[in-house]
Amino acid sequence: MTTARVEILVEPFRENDPGPHVTAAVDALEAAGLTTDMGPFATTATGELDQVLGAVTALLRESFEAGADAIQVRVERTD
Fold this sequence. Notes:
The protein is an alpha+beta fold. The chain has two helices and four strands. It has one domain: Alpha-Beta Plaits. Helices cover 38% and strands 34% of the residues. It is globular and about 35 Å long.
């Protein structure tokens, strides 16, 4: 089984007010069955590679639809 970690940064960034564009991304990760860790600048999640990749597709779509201007995504293999 291949596992991966995804780290996302959704803009615009608003300190202490993530906004619907950020919560849409987090919701997409969690809907894929991933547990998220929202930090001050980025949100991370880890899971099976296919699960992570599917979540990334959904979070990009849903975040842009919710008003994101830009989304940075970093995926790294963890196994």
